[in-house]
Amino acid sequence: QVQLVESGGGLVQPGGSLRLSCVASGFTFSKFAMDWYRHSPGKEREEIAGISSLGGTTKYADSVKGRFTISRDSARNTLYLQMNSLKAEDTAVYYCRARSSWPVWQEYWGQGTQVTVSS
């Protein structure tokens, strides 16, 4: 059974940091690229960061570039998102996604973790 379980969300003051984790099970983690998305009320779901299956390539949305860092640990089957210099507009539910196009398109989502940035 495929599972992606996010954790690490919470309430943080503006300027603070959080590290999100996404633990994967039920599939070969090292063969899937991984992404972080976020969704806040009244806004479109936003893809904010991605990392290739072996971790050699990363990408970021302009809204988080220079503040967030995506990484993965294949030994622990875990995806991370280090979030620094948090702003109120970063408040959202954060989701991880696993994706692979071989041999067919496969996509799995976690249940999300809430991040609230407020003083």
Q: Would you mind describing this structure in some detail?
A:
The protein has 119 residues and is mostly beta strands. Helix content is 0%, strand content 52%. The chain has no helices and eleven strands. The chain is globular and about 45 Å long. It starts with a strand and ends with a strand. The mean pLDDT is 97.
Brief rundown of the structure:
By secondary structure, this protein is an all-beta fold. It has strands at residues 3-7, 10-12, 18-25, 33-39, 46-51, 58-60, 68-73, 78-83, 92-100, 106-109, 113-117.
- What oligomeric arrangement do these chains adopt? single chain
Put simply, the count of helices is 0
Question: What string, H for helix and E for strand, traces the elements in order?
Answer: EEEEEEEEEEE
- How many strands, what sense, and barrel or not for the largest sheet? 7 strands, mixed
Low confidence ranges: none
Shape: globular
What is the rounded Rg? 14 Å
Topology record:
Blueprint: E1 3-7, E2 10-12, E3 18-25, E4 33-39, E5 46-51, E6 58-60, E7 68-73, E8 78-83, E9 92-100, E10 106-109, E11 113-117
Parallel strand pairs: 2-11
Antiparallel strand pairs: 1-3, 3-8, 4-5, 4-9, 5-6, 7-8, 9-10, 9-11
Which keywords apply here?
single chain; 4-stranded antiparallel sheet; 11 strands; mainly beta; 119 residues
